[in-house]
Amino acid sequence: MTRNNKLLIATLGVLAAILACIKVYQSRRAGASLEPIVLYCVLPHPYFSGVMQGAEAYEREHGVRVRLVTGQESSQANVNQNVESLFTLGHRAFAIYPVDPAGSRGLFDRLKRAGCHVVAYGAQPEPGSAAAFAIATDTRAAATLAAESLVKLIGGRGRILNVLESLTDANTPIRDAAVREVVAKYPDVEIIQTIGDVTTEQKAREKIESALVARGDEVDGIVCTGYTTTVAAAMLLSERHARPGAKRIRFVGLDTDERVLAAIRDGSIDMTLAQNPFGHGYISCTLLGLLLEGWEPKAPYQFIDSGSVPVTKENLDTFEAGIREMTRTIVAELKMKYLNPPNALESE
């Protein structure tokens, strides 16, 4: 072998070593630049805005970066595609809204087998899924409270509209069943129409307005168990009740859009239920942060009720403090109620 060939081989060897070092450095740098936690929101929606505010508060207070991702549509296929792309980038801790409780099971199982941590928020996944936790409103209890409150407002007698939201939302069938169970207890209360498959405020307004035009004189109360339907109904009833001589229709809704709160303040509607989307984001990120530190769930799956608060004219200015206090209490109890400290199982 000539001297030039030896020099060429030596040079190539040095270059290969340098390239290998660069690759290792880039890989480590990319890993270090990844946010430890991903909060995945299904699509742009006021509810998810509240969830993201909770995640941002967790990031500020704990110094742990959170990647906020919003999907394009409310479908399990879209969730799967986006989350699996994030997994290939190296993310290993996910807070995900289970848009399809059964369909999300496969995604959660795949993530867990790959060594990821998964926390569901906003709704419960199908039993047996690999999510360690679900942080959500107790959907059935909240819908039951809304229906019972409306029945009380109409004096235990009358006809009501049962207004649902998106039929693809995991919570919709639970809310519908809860409302029907309450009404079934009162022989003098009747659901004269159920409105559903609503995904926008405009569509909700059109459907509710059509029902009121056709049967408004028969309707004594309206219960809405979704955000967009509550906003649409609140706006319609504000207009309707401003007309001299208009029949008063009692109303209970869900969530706390500013327009809904304004309608409660001026007496156009009676009540709404405040959920805790801030807590959904804050608590789920807190759990993922602890899991990444080595804390372990006390059980394979645990549901954490994030709480809800009835909002009427009497507590309009104080209910938000109550919601934040709920979140603080839940977070303070996480380690004691739901988690084992790192290496605790090995030491037993």
Description:
This protein has 348 residues and is of the alpha/beta class. It has 2 domains: 32-137 and 277-308 and 320-347, 3-Layer(aba) Sandwich (Rossmann fold); 139-274, Response regulator (Rossmann fold, 3-Layer(aba) Sandwich). 51% of the residues lie in helices and 17% in strands. It is built from 12 helices and 14 strands. The protein has a 6-stranded parallel beta sheet with strand order 2-1-3-4-5-12, sandwiched between helices. The protein starts with a helix and ends with a helix.
Features:
six-stranded mixed β-sheet, 12 helices, Rossmann fold, elongated, alpha/beta, 348 residues, 2 domains
Q: How many β-strand runs?
A: 14
Q: How many domain units? A: 2
CA(first)-CA(last) distance: 65 Å
How would you describe the shape?
elongated
- Structural class by secondary-structure content: alpha/beta
Q: Give the integer mean of the pLDDT values.
A: 89
| Count, helices | 12
Approximate helicity band: 40-55%
Question: Topology, pairings included?
Answer:
Blueprint: H1 3-33, E1 37-41, H2 46-62, E2 66-70, H3 76-89, E3 93-96, H4 103-113, E4 117-121, E5 133-136, H5 139-153, E6 158-163, H6 172-184, E7 189-195, H7 201-215, E8 221-224, H8 227-241, E9 250-254, H9 258-265, E10 271-274, H10 277-292, E11 296-297, E12 302-305, E13 309-311, H11 319-337, E14 339-340, H12 344-347
Parallel strand pairs: 1-2, 1-3, 3-4, 4-5, 5-12, 6-7, 6-8, 8-9, 9-10
Antiparallel strand pairs: 10-13, 11-14
